[in-house]
Design brief:
The complex is a heterodimer. By secondary structure, chain A is mainly α. Chain A contains 17 helices and no strands. Chain B has two domains: 211 residues, no CATH class; 150 residues, GMP Synthetase, Chain A, domain 3 (2-Layer Sandwich). The chains are: A mainly alpha, B alpha/beta.
């Protein structure tokens, strides 16, 4: 059984779709609560700020990746940190994406069970999702990217149109002139909000397959900006439909916002079911991206085992791990821990790498930057 | 195994999987096996000792639609179909727990309760006065609960409301839900569904619910509203007060404004559109609020005979006259409500967010804020249309 059947080639547009599909998925159903707990009415500003922080982090990631244009992070981790630490970091990447998949899938299953299929066991929902994850991932990265490319724009458009219906009943008096309580609440809500942007760091993994590397930063920035606008739109929606006091008490504030939609009295009674139907493709793309990235990470770290075998091995592992937490609240604690690891991989880790690159260059272990635009 | 045989085997396996996975819902239940609950009536009973502990006791009435009796039930009497089967069943349970009460419908009706289509929650007055906190928690915790579910206060025995027949709806719960929705749409009553209650409870803001009562002919009417503060009913509003409060709260929808013209005669102005803004200010340490109400109306009745509206000045005169009357009325209502309830019935807590000094003062101590608040009202009333008639008939022709 082989790994990737052919070398992937990701165009700038495909990179936008792929990045957007990977990080916009499950977290946004919960994100308004975390953002509003501290920032209250200014939560939408926190989202925008988090997006800018993500773009800043992306800039560093891009600088690092450009140094090794034909290698993945798994190839240059040992070069920069030595074989032992580098290999440990490679394993950490695989585990990070594995647990990202685990937490995402369990949260998705909980939402589906709570809102749509109350009597269906979580195990069945998770198993069904895992089976459809393997199918497109089987033939490597490109089928996944093509799937994102073909499905995401329509899903996103329908979702925005759906949530605009909630805006019809908005109470705009809930809005407030920004920074009335100072800038501190906006900043203190930042860590929980940044979690929802995690995923853009897959650029570390797939940078060698990007066809026009000089556009990688712009493409990924567009994805982050689009995701940030979508998040801000949702946070604003929960603010003007539910208000901050209700939002911070809801398990899934965005689902509760969908419950405020009533098109024709007693005709469309449970609009949240429509939301679940529209949201599942977004959740699916996220699971798919992370699951494949996990298998890809392990495959690159331990190349003796083919990519497909890694997928086959990880599938039952995801299933079992996702069933370990007793309930959603316990799983959200896992999510927080995964988010912390994600923060490490997006903020200090790329900075440390950048420092290592500079130091290694000074020591003459790395070649100096060329001026052809391909490397720093 | 040849490649062709392997592909054939894979295809068969996939088809088998699809067959198993897509054959039907995991938890599929026939409609007849579900107790579709359309209304819940809850009232409080005297406390009782339950499992060794003294607890609040509730009477929970669950109205379940009967699928066999509901279809086509539009005839007089409202509760039975042509074939004689009732369109609904009321199940009454005495319980200290709402969830337990609802769940007991399984043993009383051999069906699984489903609250996804709940249209009405009727709260007995005794429960309303003692506090709806436990009921609120139960209702808002359920994922299948809709935020548009109407919630009203019932002035009288709950069971009587849930057995009053309707000529237009198959069940009394649907009848009351439709009435409550129409009252809010047409009689200028603030919105009062579960979503609004939730927002108010979480924001520690008083809220208003439609109050239903039974008249002498045992017909349901909704002419009053109940005021809640800290999840307890603290008073009642008349129809006029409800209307005035809606105008002040900026919840202006279609409705009729009635004014005296002369000799006990009436003028009727239909509301077409409008808005109410507040201009707050802190003056000498006291909150001053000016409600600026702008209304567009249509003249639909003028009982004072011999009047003409053929000249713009005559319309302007009527606008000034009725605007001044409305200003007087709204000022009186605002002062009465703030003095009576000493709570934020005007929903200022959300509307003052951009005035931090006033907002924080109100959040800190609503009672003192209301006691010190000085209210002023400015009304700009416009008559946009006078209908098909320029002149009313002469006085002499008035019998």
């Amino acid at each position: 059984m082989q790994g990737l059947e052919q070398r992937p080639a990701i165009s700038p547009t495909q990179l936008v779709m792929f990045e957007f599909g990977v990080f916009v998925g499950v977290g946004f159903l919960i994100m308004p609560r975390g953002a509003m707990e501290k920032a209250r009415e200014d939560a939408w500003l926190t989202v925008i700020l988090a997006g800018l922080c993500a773009i800043a982090s992306l800039w560093v990631i891009n600088r690092v990746a450009r140094t090794f244009p034909h290698e993945t992070v798994f190839d240059y981790n040992p070069k920069l940190f030595g074989t032992i630490i580098g290999s440990l970091l490679n394993v950490a990447w695989g585990l990070y994406y594995l647990f990202f998949t685990v937490t995402g899938i369990r949260v998705m299953a909980e939402v589906v069970r709570e809102e749509m299929l109350p009597f269906t066991p979580v195990e069945v929902i998770i198993a069904a999702m895992l089976l459809v994850l393997v199918y497109p991932a089987w033939n490597g990265l490109m089928p996944i990217i093509r799937m994102f490319e073909s499905g995401l724009p329509v899903t996103l458009l329908l979702m925005v149109m759906f949530f605009l219906l909630a805006y019809l009943r908005a109470d705009w008096t809930e809005l407030r002139i920004p920074f009335q309580d100072g800038i501190r609440p906006v900043i203190s809500a930042l860590p929980q909000t940044i979690y929802s942007f995690l995923g853009f760091e897959v650029l570390f993994l797939y940078y060698p397959f990007v066809t026009r590397k000089e556009k990688a930063f712009v493409s990924t920035s567009i994805a982050i900006a689009a995701g940030g606008m979508f998040y801000a739109f949702l946070v604003l929606g929960t603010l003007v439909t539910l208000g901050p006091d209700v939002t911070i008490t809801q398990t899934f504030p965005v689902v509760t916002m969908a419950k405020t939609i009533e098109l024709v009295r007693q005709f469309v009674e449970r609009a949240e079911l429509l939301l679940i139907i529209l949201w599942l493709p977004l959740a699916y793309t996220t699971h798919l991206g992370f699951f494949f990235s996990s298998a890809f990470s392990f495959h690159r770290t331990f190349p003796r085992l083919a990519l497909r075998w890694w997928m086959v091995l990880l599938l039952p592992l995801v299933f079992v791990l996702s069933l370990i937490p007793d309930n959603l609240i316990a799983m959200l604690k896992w999510s927080d821990k995964v988010g912390l690891v994600g923060l490490f991989f997006t903020v200090p880790y790329p900075l440390i790498m950048l420092v290592c690159i500079v130091v290694r260059r000074k020591l003459g272990h790395l070649s100096s930057p060329r001026k052809d635009g391909d490397v720093t | 195994m040849t490649k062709r045989r392997r592909n054939w085997l894979a295809a068969v396996t996939v088809i088998l999987f699809i067959g198993v996975l897509l054959a039907g819902c995991w938890d599929y239940r026939e409609l007849e096996k579900r107790a579709v609950i359309v209304g819940i009536g809850v009232d409080e009973l005297p406390p009782a000792t339950y499992k060794g502990k003294k607890m609040r006791m509730y009477q929970v009435l669950v109205q379940v639609v009967e699928p066999a009796g509901a279809g086509g039930n539009m005839g007089a009497g409202g509760s039975t179909q042509a074939n004689g089967r009732k369109a609904y069943t009321n199940i009454v349970i005495t319980t200290p727990s709402f969830a337990e009460g609802i769940e007991r419908t399984v043993s009383l009706s051999d069906r699984i309760p489903n609250l996804a289509h709940l249209q009405l929650i009727g709260v007995g007055e005794k429960l309303a006065k003692n506090g709806i906190n436990e009921l609120y928690d139960f209702l808002t915790r359920l994922p299948q609960m809709r935020r548009h579910t109407e919630i009203i206060v019932l002035d009288g025995p709950v069971s009587r409301f849930f057995t009053t027949p309707s000529i237009s709806q198959p069940t009394p719960a649907l009848h009351m839900a439709e009435m409550a929705a129409n009252v809010q749409r047409t009689l200028v009553m603030p919105e009062s569904n579960l979503g609004v209650v939730s927002k108010s409870v979480r924001g520690h803001i008083p809220f208003i619910l439609v109050k239903a009562s039974l008249d002498k002919n045992k017909k349901i009417n909704m002419k009053q509203a109940a005021v809640f503060d800290r999840q307890k009913m603290v008073g009642t509003l008349s129809t006029d007060q409800m209307q005035d409060l809606s105008l002040l709260q900026n919840e202006i929808e279609r409705g009729l404004l009635s004014f005296p013209c002369s000799g006990g005669k009436k003028t009727g102005l239909q509301l077409l559109a409008g808005r109410s803004r507040i201009e707050p200010a802190m003056q000498n340490g006291r909150p001053h609020l000016t409600f600026k109400v702008f209304l567009e109306t249509e003249l639909i009745e003028y009982q004072c005979m011999g009047a003409s509206f053929s000249e713009p000045e005559q319309i302007r005169k009527a606008e000034r006259w009725y605007g001044a009357m409305l200003k007087k009325r709204l000022t009186a209502t605002a002062n009465k409500l703030k003095d009576e309830f000493k709570a934020d019935v005007f929903r200022l807590t959300t509307r003052l967010k951009n005035h931090p000094d006033l907002y924080h003062a109100l959040k800190r101590d609503p009672k003192t804020f209301m006691e010190q608040m000085v209210v002023d009202v400015n009304v700009e009333l416009k008559i946009r249309t006078i209908g098909s008639s320029l002149k009313t008939p002469d006085r002499v022709s008035n019998p």
